[in-house]
Structures are given as C-alpha cells and as structure tokens.
Amino acid sequence: MNLKRLFYIRQWQPSRRRILDEIDEEFHFHLRQRALDSEAEGMDPAEARRDAERRFGDTRRYREQGEKVLRSHARKQARANSLSTLIDHLRFALRSLGKSPGFTGIALTTMGLGIGATTLVFSVLYGVPLKPLPYADADRLVSVWVNLKAENQLLPSANPQDFRDYRLETTSFEELAAASRLWGIVGVLTGDGPPLDVDLYGLTRNFLPMLGVNPVLGRHFTEADEAVNGPKVAKLSNEKPSSLNSSWITW
Amino acid sequence: MPSDAIEVLKGTLDMMVLKILEEEPQHGYGITRRLQALTDDALQVDEGSMYPALYRMQKRGLIEAEWFLTESNRRAKIYRLTEDGRDQLKKESAYWGRFSEAVSRVMAPAPEAIR
Lengths: 251, 115
Prior knowledge:
The complex is a heterodimer of chains A (about 250) and B (about 120).
Chain A: H1 3-6, H2 16-40, H3 45-56, H4 59-99, H5 101-130, E1 146-148, E2 153-155, H6 160-169, E3 179-181, E4 187-189, E5 196-198, E6 201-203, H7 207-211, H8 223-226
Antiparallel strand pairs in A: 1-2, 3-6, 4-5
Helix pairs in contact in A: 2-3, 2-4
Chain B: E1 6-7, H1 12-23, E2 26-27, H2 28-39, E3 43-44, H3 50-59, E4 63-69, E5 75-81, H4 83-107, H5 111-114
Parallel strand pairs in B: 1-3
Antiparallel strand pairs in B: 2-5, 4-5
Helix pairs in contact in B: 1-4
C-alpha cells in the first residue's frame, strides 16, 4: 500500500538533481584532494590531475551506480519518516487531549451534537421533503409557472382558457395537467350515512393519469367530462372511505 | 598502482571500510588514503568504486553521512559508523579471522615439505 498517498503528510525527498549534485561534489572533492596531495609530493599540477582521474576510474559508472543506491535509500527513508511522523502526530494529539479534559469534553460534545444533527436531518428531513414523490416518473414532474410580463407577475397558475391553449400547443412537455382548489364552493357528501363536508378540487382529465394514479372504482375523466357544459362528475379520495359506498357522486 | 596489486575479495572492501571508520569518522578520500597506507598500496581497486560501496552501506544503515566544512573551507561528506555498523564489523571480523586462519593452514608449507 502506498502510505504516502494515503496520508497528507508527505515527507521531503531529495530530488534526482540534488542527489547527483552531491555525488559530483563528493567526487570532485576526492579528485581535488588527490591532485593536491600529489602536487605536495612534487608532481606537476596537470600530471597530478590526470593521475587522480586515472586512480579514480570510470567516473560515469560510479556516478550512475551511486545515484541508483542513494535514490532508493532516500525513498526508503521518506517512507519510514512519513509513517513515524504520523504516529508522532497521533501520539501528540492524544496526549494533548488528555492534558486538557475540559477542551476534550467540549470537542467531543460538539462532535456528538454535529453527528447527531446530521443523522437527524437525514433520517427525518430525507423522509419528508427530500424523498422523491410517490408518483410515476416523479423525477420528471415539474410545476409550471406563468410569467405575466405585463403585470410583472409570476404565478403558478393560469386561467382555464389559457391552460387549454398551453396544453394544446405545448411541445416541451409530454403532458400538461392542472388542478385547483375550488374556493368558495362547499361540498356536502350525502349517502347512506350522515352528510359530510368535503373539500373540492377541480382537475383536468389527464391530471391523475399523469401521476399514475388509477381509480379503484369507476373511471378516469374523459374529454366529454371536461366540456364547458359537460356532466358534473367527481372522484372521491379515499381519505374517508369508511362511510361511503360509492366512488362517484353528483351534486 | 603496482603491477602485482591484489584484487579485492568480494565483500572484504566493505569490511575494511567499516574497520577504518571504527578508528574515526572520515570522508571518502580519507578512507581511501587510510586503506592505501594500511595495505602499502597493495590493493587493486579503483578509488571511485569506494563510493557506491559507501552508499550501499549507508542504505543498509551500517554507516551514516553528513556534510561538514574542512579546514580548507570546502564541503566534505563525512561518514561514521552506526551501532548496526559496529555490530556488523564485529561479526565480520570474527568470521574473517576464522576464514583466513583456515585458509592459511591449508596454504602454509606442509611439515613434510620442510623435512
């Protein structure tokens, strides 16, 4: 395993250039000292230099061999250092924490609360607004807003005539459906049991099919149902099903 | 280099370098000079071959190196023995003692030849 890559502590490693420079400096020192010593014994300076080189041998070969060894040595050392540095850091951190229990307590509490809050958000918040809607192709459902430029208004609604045009002419959407709470109309449901107050919503015929919701009883709305003076038809949600025995009512 | 120079046995150069460094820390050239002085210049070895050997021993942790300024104000890389190097030298010189004694016994003139 490559520890250097795993940990952020990356030890300094001498470059190839630097290693070669040091080898050259060492070799030059040797050759110079040898030449100086020979000169001191009475040898001619030029002859002394040649003699030093002859005694030294194949400089290039020894330089290459030396470089290989020193480079692998440097790599080995850097590896050892980075691991021991990491261990030192950890040990120091633990010892510091032990020395200041107050700080340690606050840090642990902070982390605990942080982790707790994150867990809470993901277990509760995810379940409610983040989870996809339980409808067919939920990831392709969008809410369409209308930009009324003249009045500088942006609304999530349109009047029925405009909506009909949009639905007829749209090329951007597979399906365009509308729903609206019918404010000001009181719904009373009568049947076998006592009458019930119900909230009323107007839906276009394609609204529920678009969401992939099918009636348990009865049928979807049709184009005829949607006509301006068409029949008065309704679907009943199953919120209060116990007191009802019909899914279709008229009023 | 004398023409009757002796080729160095494999591995013995390392041992001799350790022995010389046991006396005192030295730079590469100093080790070379000491080796030549001790052997009366009898060993046939390129002075340059000292360096790969030094680097190998450094990598094995037998010696360590540091740059110092010499009296002439030039930088020199000084080598010294580590504890591991000291142990290694002890082992190797014990082995060498037994080895050379055995070889000498074989090579010494047999009593019969004297007689």
